[in-house]
Amino acid sequence: MTASNTTPDSDDRQDGDDRPPPARFAFDGSTWREIAHLLANLPLALLGFVYVAFAIFTGVGLSVTVVGLPLLAAGLMGARAIGIADRARARKLLGVRIDEPSPPHGRGRARGLIPWVRSRLKDPVAWRAVLYACIRLPWGVLTFTVTLVGLFVLWPVLAFIVRGLANADRAMVRGLLSPSDELERRIAELESDRGLVVDTAAADLRRIERDLHDGAQARLVALAMGLGLAKEKLSGDALDTAAAAAMVDEAHGEVKLALQELRDLARGIHPAVLTDRGLDAALSAVASRCTAPVAVTVDLRTRPAEAIEGIAYFTVSELLQNVSKHAKASKVSVDVWRRDSRLLIQVVDDGRGGARLDAGSGMAGLAERLGAVDGLFALDSPVGGPTTVTAELPWRERGAR
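Given the sequence above, the corresponding structure tokens read:
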């Protein structure tokens, strides 16, 4: 039987359409992959069922003993691994677009045997994988038998039969092995975002420690030594007031530099003007340090939560630093306003453009930080300019928890 003129699956369905491909009278690459999947169902289903019967059922049977529940928890971990392999096979042979579920809840927090066992026993993904392994054995016998017979007896209608069985397999995989719902996928995103937030906080702490050690701390040490030498000049038999005065004057200069460095460091942690007067005044202060004239417009009737306000401030601050370092702009505008439940920020400069969101760049870091708090970051920077950066943050009322 020759293939018909029907186009492949990837061509006769639009992008993003995850419906099962229609049955058709053709033996193309997709059909042969489906045949391979159906023939592999029986041996893989047999292995999966034997594992479940031994590990899970044994764990349940011994649950009245000390080792029963840990054995059951370990068996569920293995069932999760079987699910990973089955999802990979379905992606490769059936073209099923399916995400990986999030890790078991409590991973990273559960320390000790009891919390570990509890988190595994409450894992819905693992239990669905166990159910899939049990259902797949009779299904594997059916699909293997029908497909094998069809290859030698039902060749004229085999393409129809294979497509129908494969579509049933697709539905089974989506129903039992996919993330349970949108919340499951959101948990996975938050797990990733939490790691980013922790890494960012650790990097900020290291920066503050380095700035204190190399800046203000070093100056204060030099100040103490200078004042100690001045004290020696003013005491004892050899009174040298001129040298002591010079040392005190030098120490006074060190004090002023140390104070300025401490102010700069405090501004980098959380500026006092932001706490006292809000975004309008704080962003105006940041704009005054930019190398290009900046027009700041803040249209907010109320102030957002402290955390959101701080993120907005540091986002604009870093964007204006980028303008000063790279843009060669003659004018910049900063607009901040609220739309429904979002805080919007837009920074536009008429510089040379060409900014990119490549991994490792400052812009990429900003995008990651905003994404970690359910924010958005958009960059439009053609070569030659202008550059427009739009950021969104979730609005939370001040004082709300």
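The chain has three domains: 12-180, 191-269, 272-394. Try to locate this feature in the token string yourself.
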